[in-house]
Amino acid sequence: MASQAEGSSVAADIEAIFHPHSIAVVGASANPDTPGYDYVRSLQQFGYKERIYPVNPKGGEILGLPVFASLRDVSGGIDYVISCIPNAYILDLVGDCAAAGVKALQLFTGRFSETGRADDAALEDRLRQTASEAGVRLIGPNCMGLLYPALGISFRTDMSRKSGPIGFLSQSGNLLFELTHFGESRGLRFSKAISYGNALDLNECDFLEYFAEDAETRVIGAYIEGVRNGRAFIRALRRASSRKPTVVLKGGRTGAGGRTAVSHTAALAGSAAVWDAAVRQSEAIGVDTVEELVDALIACAYMKTPFGMHSGNRFSRPRLAMVGAGGGRSVLTADLSEELGLLVPPLPPDVEAKVAEKAPDLAGWITNPVDQSILAGSGLGGAQVLEWLDESPDIDMVVGNIGEPWAFGRPNGEAIVRRVTERFTGVAEKTKKPFAVVLGPSDYGDEERWRVVSEARDRLVEAGVAVFPSVERAVRTLARLAGHWSRRRA
Amino acid sequence: MASQAEGSSVAADIEAIFHPHSIAVVGASANPDTPGYDYVRSLQQFGYKERIYPVNPKGGEILGLPVFASLRDVSGGIDYVISCIPNAYILDLVGDCAAAGVKALQLFTGRFSETGRADDAALEDRLRQTASEAGVRLIGPNCMGLLYPALGISFRTDMSRKSGPIGFLSQSGNLLFELTHFGESRGLRFSKAISYGNALDLNECDFLEYFAEDAETRVIGAYIEGVRNGRAFIRALRRASSRKPTVVLKGGRTGAGGRTAVSHTAALAGSAAVWDAAVRQSEAIGVDTVEELVDALIACAYMKTPFGMHSGNRFSRPRLAMVGAGGGRSVLTADLSEELGLLVPPLPPDVEAKVAEKAPDLAGWITNPVDQSILAGSGLGGAQVLEWLDESPDIDMVVGNIGEPWAFGRPNGEAIVRRVTERFTGVAEKTKKPFAVVLGPSDYGDEERWRVVSEARDRLVEAGVAVFPSVERAVRTLARLAGHWSRRRA
Q: What ipTM, to 2 d.p.?
């Protein structure tokens, strides 16, 4: 099993790369509007505890650290080098790395094959060859590199400093900013993440292998524009997916997307149909947009899986229940759910019996989804019905909608949002079913509403609840995962 | 043309209903957590300038107004009555209305046919008959009624007090809260809106006719669960749609949705296929979710239409350009656009020539969508390229992504967001093409970011720019409207 042995050795290389005892930033700068400044400052601000060596022929001091003119001037050994210098100097830098015993070189440096020019592509080839001969592993070129909050490693100061369950590999660094910017308030946090650009040496297969083994990673996410070796990729994806939920977003599925990918990472995008088949065969979770990616990662990280999915039971059309919306929204949720292949049955008999006992006047009228406005004034609250639905053997998935557009119109709206949030958190803590809470977006002008919604979201996320900014996105995500769960075999 | 004459007379009735010289709230209450309080308080807070008569047998005073024991005790005439009393008293109320010369009665009062019980349905039948004989027009029952900010009429204090171009008819009152809550910061504002519940008398056809004529309405929106007369509805929808962009969201498209609609407004939902055919024949804009509804309304209200669409020119696959995202996002946007039927061509020759002049180093490398990170440090800004693309004859639709996830990582991030917002606003003011700006969501925990994004959004909305909270939603909306525009005939 040569390939497995090789896989393990690469995983060991990557593990070492994530645990450097010293980091040099070549092309470090005192100008705050440069990447050569960002890398040094990020390491400091994230609390990287070992040695940081800024390198720049100009010398001087950057952020309180003495600047070395060259890697060769640093004594004491360098494990990891970040390059921000122009591509013209890159072969010399590889030589310096070899001389200094550097194990790995990450290149923010770009303008290689992605420019589409022959000389840049030729330089990339020489870079690969030179590094290989020198025994220096490469991350990139044309990438942001490593994020590992637990050890204080980051490429930008405003990534999340909180560690989370998600290991992520991305051919786009900007995508990692977007995931953090749009997902962090919902608990989208990384164990480790890697922006790996043109994938000249270490590539998607290596990182998938690594995350499949990594004890700090529970969920794997990937943004991939192209793969070098289709068979190896399918093998790596299948292995990762058999260990941990693995969500993959493919860039370059169309002619225009493929053309754009070439100018981005020089990736050869390949056929969308082949990709889809690979994802399906691997039993990974395929998504098509950043929104879907965020939602699927949140779901995998924070939702229960139904029916002992890990042991491979199948189920076909899961039965969804929802509580906490007005009439129109209830109707529309039922429509969307059924259109996406979920079942939305009427209230199960056990729940119907409890309703009849507590609020006889509503029996036979309210249905599922539970129209909150019918409950108003009945003495029966939505959270109570949600608990009953969660306990019912005839319901597989539950959505709880906080319903703040309605609540904020009441005189005690903020208290309602807080109370419902607490009740839903209680259900989430007990449930054995996939449970999605809908809250937000807090995407409106009123500061007080923004604050109440943000605090409620924080509370839910702290409790480990999967929160979605709209009913649509909650239902689409449940349908996507239902499809995934139902395809999984033992 | 009896039906047209009748149509006009109904439109005149509705126009009168929207301009009452006095409003009585029957079942008014001093308890702030009741609709009988909300209606009185909303009229006061929205600045309704004419007489408000709270009615309640208990008498006393509510919000500074004397309470009348009965409608019959009010002297001076009542144009419009809002009912919040239980259904058991409703026939007596109709009698009181007739005696007091009331023209229209709106029933928040529910529990009629929507409960599914024979006695409630029978009561509804008697209500219809009694009101018809008494010459009192009904809105509802089981509805929130009228919103007309210009005249100070509202059913809830937290609806928007700003008037806008959108006339909306809805079988769900809660949906109107949601549209305001989720859409107002993007400029989703109503000329007038009507929540009409069970549609016992005035119905969707009447309101469509009315909005088609209403000078204050430029765009029509509708949420409909069921129609009483399919042919009449298609006629009314076609007439409305021929006059103004008309966006319709259908609730009850599936078995579960239909069942839920029955318990909501007793609507008979009918077949989804028949509905789709009706929307297509009418050349209305059909949507399936609240998010799509909000986005389509914003687009119709604030976007230019391409190619003199009003005179009926056709175009097939429109060519989209986007600026302002990183590489991964650019690739994904190209993919999604093409998957939805839009074309994403490379940079047109005229734009390519301008790039070659200003930044020779990038010529032949950057493509469309324009990868912002390639521009970094080139001296060529994204807003400049956006202007060129907008001016190019080879581009039909333009998306400008503010790109705040990237900007906030820079030392002067807030200034970048403000500057890009100003530049994009300038493009929006000049363009003759559909132009979507992407900003937000401001759906994250950091207060300063929320403030910067909210202020930027306010600026764009003030300038009449169509803003979308994600690239995905912008592209989906452009694709939807492109389909609509291309189907329209002269």
A: 0.94
